[in-house]
Structure to design on (407 residues):
């Protein structure tokens, strides 16, 4: 066990790691896991990873589970980092890469965080896990809880994509649909958790989902031969992946595996729900709730993120930026990824394409820089959305074969 303690990300109060915790009891901010990295560096080397398993647990010493038999895994992680040559050529980028998270169990990056969170819940004795979800997080929680034989309780906005709702129900989760946004569902989880005996695994309201997400940073570094890209473009709702990667880079440097260089972190949001973009442009450290949030990209429809200051700190420390794109642009971006690279991206992943085009136009990204875009999930869960947009684009036309064609 290489965990030293849990630490509040804001006020730095320390907590014992061997029991269930949610947020800091002093300031209500997220807790982060701190490791004895000096000790780990004495026996864990980059070379020691070569023969290891191809999932997030290849980084076993840098994850918090104490006992091997408490690990709950479905083979998550070690997803491909694809050189997007065709899309790169169209954009004028020679080194454009896509980290394709749609190949995870439950077809999204949420599998990483839920694998670690459910593993720790099992180790620490939790019997019922609850979370709000607008889609992929719920599907991942349902699957990992089923594998661990732990109860899953999900509160989901009524307009959550039907595929996600069915996924959760088929895996045996208890699903309740609500009017409103994910923040309304989160408030209901908080209201009911004591009386229902739930442990709340909402985004950044427990310390372990971010530990699973940080493996994104480990993998990018390893897949690029222990270098980091110049730019990372990340679709941001709750922002756990961006926060996790920033934490991962710091840990890798402390291990002596990488140097001081960091990518510029680019947060991408939908124009109809862009609290991080608005706060970044205003120079604020915290983001006000985005009222009347609306976007077809359900994973980006997070009007208030508890880790807002961590996202904004990482953007500024890296000299990055935050941009927004319209729903029409992000859907077209997903189509462009599919046509050019064969990646059927989620709308959230599609948002990265117009974002990088926007950044190139303003000179914030140079054509010779190494850029990594994130596709966080599969477009297969949004078929109704893509189908409705396809029908709207079609116009009647005569067949090129002519009317005389007969069997």
């Amino acid at each position: 066990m290489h965990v030293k303690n849990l630490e509040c990300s804001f006020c730095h109060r320390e907590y014992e790691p061997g029991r269930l915790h949610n947020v800091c009891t002093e300031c209500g901010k997220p807790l982060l896991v701190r490791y004895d990295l000096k000790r780990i560096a004495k026996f864990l080397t980059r070379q020691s990873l070569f023969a290891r398993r191809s999932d997030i647990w290849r980084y076993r010493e840098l994850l918090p589970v104490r006992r091997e038999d408490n690990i709950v895994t479905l083979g998550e992680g070690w997803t491909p980092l694809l050189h997007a040559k065709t899309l790169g050529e169209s954009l004028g980028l020679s080194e454009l890469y896509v980290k394709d998270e749609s190949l995870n169990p439950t077809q999204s990056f949420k599998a990483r965080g839920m694998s670690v969170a459910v593993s720790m819940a099992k180790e620490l004795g939790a019997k019922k896990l609850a979370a709000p979800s607008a889609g992929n997080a719920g599907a991942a929680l349902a699957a990992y809880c089923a594998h661990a034989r732990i109860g899953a309780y999900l509160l989901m906005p009524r307009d959550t994509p039907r595929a996600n709702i069915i996924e959760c129900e088929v895996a045996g989760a208890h699903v309740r649909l609500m009017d409103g946004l994910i923040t309304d569902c989160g408030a209901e989880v908080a209201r009911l958790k004591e009386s229902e005996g739930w442990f709340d695994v909402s985004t950044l309201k427990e310390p372990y989902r971010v530990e699973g997400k940080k493996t994104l940073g480990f993998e990018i570094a390893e897949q690029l031969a222990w270098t980091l890209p110049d730019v990372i473009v990340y679709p941001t709702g709750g922002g756990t992946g961006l926060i996790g990667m920033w934490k991962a880079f710091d840990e890798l440097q402390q291990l002596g595996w990488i140097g001081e260089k960091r990518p510029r972190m680019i947060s991408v949001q939908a124009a109809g729900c862009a609290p991080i973009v608005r706060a970044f442009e205003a120079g604020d450290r915290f983001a006000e709730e985005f009222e009347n949030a609306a976007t077809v990209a359900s994973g980006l429809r997070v009007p208030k993120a508890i880790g807002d200051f961590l996202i904004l700190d990482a953007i500024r420390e890296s000299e990055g930026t935050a941009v927004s794109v319209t729903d029409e642009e992000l859907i077209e971006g997903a189509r462009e990824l599919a046509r050019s690279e064969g990646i059927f991206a989620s709308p959230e992943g599609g948002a990265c394409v117009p974002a990088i085009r926007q950044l190139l136009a303003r000179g914030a990204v140079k054509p010779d820089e190494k850029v990594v875009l994130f596709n966080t999930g599969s477009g297969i869960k949004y078929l109704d959305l893509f189908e409705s947009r396809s029908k709207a684009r079609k116009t009647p036309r005569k067949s090129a074969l002519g009317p005389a064609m007969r069997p």
The domain at 81-107+210-390 is CATH 3.40.50.1100 (Rossmann fold). The radius of gyration is 21 Å. Residues 87 and 368 are 14 Å apart (CA to CA).
